[in-house]
Amino acid sequence: MDIFEKIKNNRGPLGQYKGRSHGYFTFPKLEGEISNRMVFRGKECLIWSLNNYLGLANHPEVREADAKAAQEWGLGYPMGARMMSGQTSQHEMLEQELADFMGKEDCFLLNFGYQGCMSAIDALVDRNDVIVYDSESHACIIDGVRLHQGKRFVFMHNDIDNLRKQLERATRLTEKTNGGILVITEGVFGMSGDQGKLKEIAALKKEYNFRLFVDDAHGFGTLGETGQGAGEAQGVQHEIDILFGTFAKSMASIGAFICGDEQMIDYLRYNMRSQIFAKSLPMPLVIGARKRLEMLRTRPELKEKLWAISSALQNGLVEAGFSIGKTNSCVTPVFFKGEIEVATNMTVELREKYNIFCSLVIYPVVPKDVIMLRLIPTAMHTLEDVKYTIDTFKEMRQRIANGEFDTSKIRSMPEEQA
């Protein structure tokens, strides 16, 4: 069969809905200044879908630093991969500042989060090693695990007893292969909002010989006394052997980093294929990241504002009788009952009548009769935003109970306003 013909006949689990969803549910365009309110299809909406946790995306000081760096350096410099011709003092200074802030010996700057996390996993293990990972790990972890040519065992989400069973399996196997064990989890699971049980996992090091890899994309900058992340919040930052973070969440930029002890990070510098064979991160992004990190370190009021909004939102939802699952981070899932048609029509109504834009999550991520709306509070939001959203959700819940949403078909996308 011709590959293109096969693709035409099977557009994939998401692609099959392109005709009904493109530009509205998938690939929506949010326009205007990045903030709590932006324009969607010609209308101003209250936005709960951006990972701009600390509100740095359009902070005047950040924009000034970005602009000056772009003016001075352009986007071309440095040319080439870092190993060959793309190394600069600015890259090295950012790495040292990140290592110091995170309480680790060394740090390696990465071009992208998804690519970097996946490539780090691939570099750390060989066919004799075993990976043990959480069942709800992010796609970048899953794809990194898929690159592994050895054995991999999955443990039920945050289930320490099940993790212990998988570690026992892994230990028996590595005794035969003379390999090692890498346990992978997340600091904050970005869909459900619950933290990985890092303290309990680290405690298992007393019984089993493994290294701990933590993807803390959502925890970095939002959790812990200083903002180091979930490891600091749980008192086990020093127990995390490989700690991954991204600039795409609390720092509202592009790029990522991985930190740990000096020998391990140096090994990754010389063995991560995604960095060895990729152009160095452009100078404006590096200088911009340094400014963002400085503000993350020295402006605790940004995190305090984030948590004031997060707490008000989550406490208000619970008091109003909504389920927000087990979240213990800023990520706020809100659960409703209903089939996919109800979920879709409800989302259209939220956007068109109430001017609220948030992410819709449906089966197979959640059970078939469950609707999950995922809210991301930021330091840009206000208590008025919180009140309006909770009041709207209460009204929507009542309307669902009244059977107001037609479940016989999914509504057509409304016409875009001029």
Secondary-structure blueprint:
Blueprint: H1 3-9, H2 18-21, E1 30-31, E2 37-40, E3 43-47, H3 60-73, H4 89-102, E4 106-110, H5 113-124, E5 130-134, H6 139-147, E6 151-155, H7 160-177, E7 181-186, H8 198-203, E8 211-215, H9 230-233, E9 242-246, E10 256-260, H10 262-271, H11 273-276, H12 283-298, H13 300-319, E11 332-337, H14 340-352, E12 356-357, E13 359-361, E14 370-375, H15 383-401
Parallel strand pairs: 3-12, 5-6, 5-7, 7-8, 8-9
Antiparallel strand pairs: 1-2, 2-3, 4-10, 9-10, 11-14, 13-14
Short description:
With 418 residues, the protein is an alpha/beta fold. It is 41% helix and 15% strand.
Q: What characteristics describe this protein?
A:
alpha/beta; globular; Aspartate Aminotransferase, domain 2; four-stranded mixed β-sheet; 418 residues; Aspartate Aminotransferase, domain 1
Identify the strand order in the major beta sheet.
4-10-9-8-7-5-6
CATH topology of the largest domain: Aspartate Aminotransferase, domain 2
Distance between the termini: 45 Å
Q: Give the CATH superfamily of the largest domain.
A: Type I PLP-dependent aspartate aminotransferase-like (Major domain)
Whole-number mean pLDDT: 93
- Sheet of most strands: 7 strands, mixed
Query: Per CATH, which architecture of the largest domain?
Result: 3-Layer(aba) Sandwich
The value of Rg in angstroms is 22 Å
User: Roughly what percent helix?
Assistant: 40-55%
> Shape, please?
globular
Number of structural domains: 2
- The helix-and-strand class reads alpha/beta
